[in-house]
Protein 1
Amino acid sequence: MPEAHDPPLKEGREQLIAASKGRPGRFMARRTQPMSAFTGRREQPLPIRIVHWCNAVFLILMAGSGLQIFMAYPSLGPRGAQYRWYPFQGMPTPAWTRIGGWLGGGRQWHFAIAWFFVLNGIFYLTYFFLSGEWRRRMFRPWRDANGAIAQFLYYLRIRRMPPTKDFYNGLQRFAYTSVIIFGLLMVLSGLAIYKPVQLHFLTLLFGGYDGARVIHLAGLCLFTMFLAAHLVLVSMHPREILNMITGGPRE
């Protein structure tokens, strides 16, 4: 074979020898270190930061105004046939938790902010899927279930060591994906309460008008529990607050 072909062959032999000795050559290094789809992107891209802080405002306003509306009938179940399992029938919520001052004021606040919440959610989901962020943020059981359980056991001090660190751990992905589902249920149940006759097909999916009220209130309780846990965990890792403001380092 001509000598002009020797250098490439020699280089190929050296790479194979290096790989067999545990010292990958340039070709092997390129294969084991693929370019990430998120290279150059911040941990928390600007669109996600905008949605996050807007939602913080919207949810507070909607929760307060929603509780003001709830005060018009602070019970669950039809009048005269209230649900026995709900222990707070007829009990008003504290005044400091309500926004709007009265039923009409609460409705005005609630419905005005609701549309901003919906638009914010549409913007987030559009970016979430088109940008590919769903790949590293969405909970996928076959990838994240074991990690979520391990992380939960670690928080309970049953497991000594946390699971392998990733962009988000499995429990975080489960929580953040669940919040998207909660938000969707809140919007749909809210529409069923708002227009129970015009959207009767939607109202029926929730078991009627009173069923939609139960789902809507349950969604508020789940959001509140998520927020409480979120604030506790973020306080343990204050760098995450800064990342949600600045975007954090680039990948």
Note: The two ends are 46 Å apart (CA to CA).
Protein 2
Amino acid sequence: MEDFVDPYLEIKIQKVLRYLPRSDCGDCDLGDCFAFAKEFINDSTRICPHLTPYEHELLFLLINYEEFLYPLAHRYIKEKKLNKSAITGIITIGNPDKNAPVILTSNVLYEQSILNLLLKKAGISCYLLAIDTQGISTGEALFNAKISIYTLKQALETSHLEELVNHHQIMMPRFAMYLEKPFEKISSWKIFPGPVHVSELPIFIEKNWYGTLYRENTADIQRILKLMPELNCGKCGHSTCLEFLKELKKYKADVSSCPILLTPPYKFLRVWLENRFQPIKKYETGVILDSTRCSGCGICAKSCPANITNLENANPSNTQPLFKIINGFANILNYEECWRHKYLIPCQICQDNCPNEAISFGPIPIYYEPTRALSKAAQKS
């Protein structure tokens, strides 16, 4: 047994890698993201500073979903219910709000049961739109062209989903994108490309649905508060955990001032809070431009909040832009204007928006969440 090699190890590594930053920053002390993915499969207590505690839980579910679903699969096989038909129309999972995703599924009872169990296990609320696939799975129906754009349009119209959600996107496996253009010609709804395998659905929804489309600020205080001990003991110097989080968000409090967060049960949350809210040091504000990758597109100059603030200055002679395109390449002119240096905020908008990955910073754990909120705030200022 010592020489046993998991035949699915490579597949699991690729699945985990898909939802890691892929920056090979080494902040996990394992060298690169591939090494972390491999180690995480063997030891799920490993921490990537760029993932939230909830995302760690979803990664654990991703690589261990067979254990949760095996009893269900065994029962269905034993009772010969694998192809038994179920309801069509809307199926509500959890308590979905107006931003909840809509996921296409079949009317096969086994498939609906798997989705129901997996999504509830992950704590994800959404709507399932079940259509009649004549006893075969959604994937098989799409592969065999058993689902037409007209069938999909009719199912959406009869379900009245537009009354339940404030978007017009339905999530389907990415190999169904051959339906995208013809479907958009006959419907106001659009196809949102989802994962191919059901095991990836929870982590995909968290990172690619909420993270990309609707969660303007993924570090929402009420969301974090649910993960806190909420003892309101006052040992951090604040009357409540909520006040403590508000000060953290303003970069005016230290994570270590909460003694409860220093205990082992809160290891994941502590590391995440430290990397999300802890002010960065002056020597960690280095911005590095790789001229061999820069194409001179100017996106960094257009998206940088320091540039936007300076360009809105009433007096052109006083403008001090951080980025400027000179001779077809991006240049840093006024380093002191960088928000990382000026306000010690872990902003990385320029890096996130650079299509050529030509911008990098010092070897520090930096989160992607602040950049979305900061970008919108800067554009409104």
Note: The radius of gyration is 24 Å.
Protein 3
Amino acid sequence: MKIAKAHGIDGFALNIGKDDYSQKQLDLAYAAAEVVDFDLFISFDFNWYHIDEVDAVATMLKRYMDKPKQYMVGGKPFVSTFIGDGFDWAAVEKAVGKPIHSVPFYEPTAQNADSPSVSGLFSWYVFPLERVCVLIDRSAWPGQLGNKPIKEAMSDERDLLYMSLTDPVKKDYMAPVSPWCKSSLFPTEYMLMYSLHPLWQRSLLLQELALLLRDSLVRPMGTDPQAAR
């Protein structure tokens, strides 16, 4: 956290599944964040959670949403996801007893953007999605078709698509940005490194993205935590 803060990063997203150690690690992370003065929020991984598990999500969120270094937007605790289209965040709000600011990674559709259940949308196409027959290939790490790292220029195509859906309904858009990714998820490619830009170009990339997104959110990303366990 100290290193990240020294490099201008405001906080971490804590991607969690349903492991028996998740709560212990979250307790430690939030305690450390108080010492460092560093913001945190939970990103629920719906590879492990299911969209009908409102109570499980609400219970975990309620434990941390009032912690001193819980990231807040407009006075509301911020929360995100990996996938989970159709999850009922309004039901979570009812269960935790207060409004929340939910910006999940959902598919870029008008229905998702317009859902009263979400405060915005997040783009996170970090792995080649042709394996699930969704040919979307502009993301924090471009290329990646066939699980093979390729050299390809960054594109704002996905950002513009998301914003074309969120802007008209006055919702947030959180963009992914990263110079690299590693994953041990795929058995044929035990360790994949997707190189986008030399690290010295990262600050310029972030500046350009901040101008493009105006008051929206930028989430730096590097490692797939669920895959790397």
Note: The chain has one domain: 2-220.
